Automatic annotation (TrEMBL):
Gene3D superfamilies: Glycosidases (3.20.20.80), Golgi alpha-mannosidase II (2.60.40.1180). GO terms for molecular function: alpha-L-fucosidase activity. This is alpha-L-fucosidase. InterPro entries: FUC_metazoa-typ (IPR016286), Fucosidase_C (IPR031919), GH (IPR017853), Glyco_hydro_29 (IPR000933), Glyco_hydro_29_N (IPR057739), Glyco_hydro_b (IPR013780). It is an enzyme of class 3 (hydrolase). The record marks C295 as: May be important for catalysis. Its EC number is 3.2.1.51. One of its GO terms (cellular component) is lysosome. Pfam families: Alpha_L_fucos, Fucosidase_C.
Length: 490
């Protein structure tokens, strides 16, 4: 009798375990898709690198304040928008002067050689930058794929990196190298293509015979950790069949349990449905209740723009402060680089990445695996949230909000993050005597330390404020001074 009961108990445990671990079936509805929890690794990662790379990297030119990866659109539509006042013919004039009237955008394909592309070197740079995940443009709005794909050629001619230009599987090579150094690998994919004949003449056929099989091929071949959709805005999600695609992704694909998706799956879907929410050249978004991510370039272009000068690039300090600003409100920063057509990452971009990595090596525990505190930052007196009126918000906004305010405007004196072990107070500049953390309602800390040196700091709690005495500052002891972190031990 005892053996029978033991057998029954074992069967019950096994049956219960199967029920607990069974894969939930997702339906092609937003209610069902939105119920899927974004995998925890994404919210813990905080810093990723975006890569815009393709035939547009050959001309690598557009007026300052505009996106160079939109070169084909600027050229063929004779229009332009961004930061600045434009006539609309600037790219046309540049193109005809440089390449001639008979030179088409598709002629750039063979010039996109990627002959100096070294995926292992890229991956090492990314690792040293402190980034935790990478997102590569597998296909932008021009339709050129960075992997061998038959749908890329259904416009009537070959238009992929294995057959045109590089003669290499760029997605495959970089995915292998990035994963080998322990980083997550994501793939950007544009749903629409500006000048694909089916998109222009038969959108239903484009969706059924081009978009859906192509994106499934991408996911099946490379098993990305992130699928970053874009180019969705001209058509509703129902016409894109996005919900059916995502149900397949979460039910049947090889990455159904691990993949992360964003929110760009149809007209009006952004910041409402999908996975994590996305902002672009904005600042912070403390009102979001879902994981979110700010993406932006180091200058004003995602693709490499040789028209941008050193002063058009954000400084290392501003990029670090942007990262802190986003993370303090619960987001990730996806910072873009634009390699050239041969596969070189411009030295100024490499320098910025390495500078960020140097700061994160010392202060990363205040960034990775953290969550927002009750307040994301502490303002001084004055008018808050200085933001210039720009189509794309420039990086100097964070300097104006911290160390170089406009007259009458407040600054963010302190930023805050936390984890289970501690609260982190991040200073955008050095203060001479002490800092006051206002509204510190928690119990007295066990200790307070300066993260850069490990030294313990004197502190005093009065009512709901915590004052921390500044340590003696020796520049030789602080490897990176873009921002300073005090750790308040719980």
């Amino acid at each position: 009798m005892r053996k029978i009961w033991v057998f029954v108990l074992i069967m019950m445990l096994l049956f219960g375990s199967e029920k607990l671990t069974a894969q939930k079936k997702y339906e092609p509805t937003w209610e069902s898709i939105d119920s899927r929890k974004t995998p925890d690794w994404f919210g813990n990662a905080k810093f990723g690198i975006f890569i815009h790379w393709g035939p547009y990297s050959v001309p690598a030119w557009s007026p300052k304040g505009t996106y160079s990866e939109w070169y084909q659109y600027w050229l063929q539509n004779k229009t332009l928008f961004g930061n600045g006042n434009f006539k609309g013919d600037e790219v046309v004039n540049y193109h005809e002067k440089t390449y001639g009237k008979d030179f088409t955008y598709y002629d750039f394909g063979e010039m996109f050689t990627a002959d100096l592309f070294e995926p292992d070197a890229w991956a090492t740079l990314f690792k040293n930058s402190g980034a935790k995940y990478i997102v590569l443009t597998s296909k932008h709005h021009d339709g050129y794929t960075l992997w061998p794909n038959k749908e890329a050629n259904d416009r009537g001619f070959a238009w992929n990196s294995m057959e045109v230009g590089a003669k290499r599987d760029l997605v495959g090579e970089l995915s292998k190298s990035v994963k080998a150094v322990g980083l997550k690998m994501g793939l950007y994919y544009s749903l629409y293509e500006w000048y694909h004949p089916w998109w222009q003449q038969d959108k239903e056929r484009f969706v059924n015979d081009h978009f859906l099989p192509q994106v499934k091929d991408l996911v099946t071949k490379y098993e990305p950790d992130v699928l970053w959709a874009d180019g969705e805005w001209d058509m509703d999600a129902d016409k894109w069949k996005s919900k059916e695609l995502l149900a397949w992704l979460f039910n049947e694909s090889k990455v159904k349990n691990s993949i992360v998706i964003n929110d760009r799956w149809g007209k009006g879907v952004r910041k409402h449905h999908g996975g994590f929410f996305t902002t672009e050249y904005e600042s912070e978004a403390p009102e979001f209740t879902r994981p979110w991510e700010e993406c932006r370039g180091m200058g004003f272009s995602f693709g490499y723009n040789q028209n941008e000068d050193a002063q058009d690039y954000n400084s290392s300090k501003s990029l670090v402060l942007m990262l802190i600003n986003v993370v303090s409100t619960g987001g990730n920063l996806l910072l873009d680089i634009g390699p050239d057509a041969r596969g070189n990452i411009p030295p100024i971009m490499q320098d910025r990445l390495l500078d960020i990595g140097k700061w994160l090596k010392v202060n990363g525990e205040a960034i990775y695996n953290t969550r927002p505190w009750k307040d994301s930052f502490q303002w001084s007196k004055g008018e808050q949230n200085y933001k210039p009126k720009q189509h794309y918000l420039g990086g100097d906004f964070i300097l104006k909000q911290t160390i170089d305010p406009e007259p009458g405007y407040a600054v963010k004196e302190l930023f805050f993050t936390q984890n289970d072990e501690a609260y982190y107070v991040i200073l955008p500049k050095w203060y001479p005597k002490e800092i006051m953390v206002k509204g510190f309602e928690s119990s007295k800390p066990s200790k307070v330390t300066f993260l850069a040196t490990g030294e313990e700091l004197k502190w005093k709690k009065s009512e709901n404020n915590l004052s921390i005495q500044m340590p003696d500052y020796y520049p030789s002891k602080v490897e990176s001074d873009y921002a300073f972190v005090f750790k308040i031990w719980k």
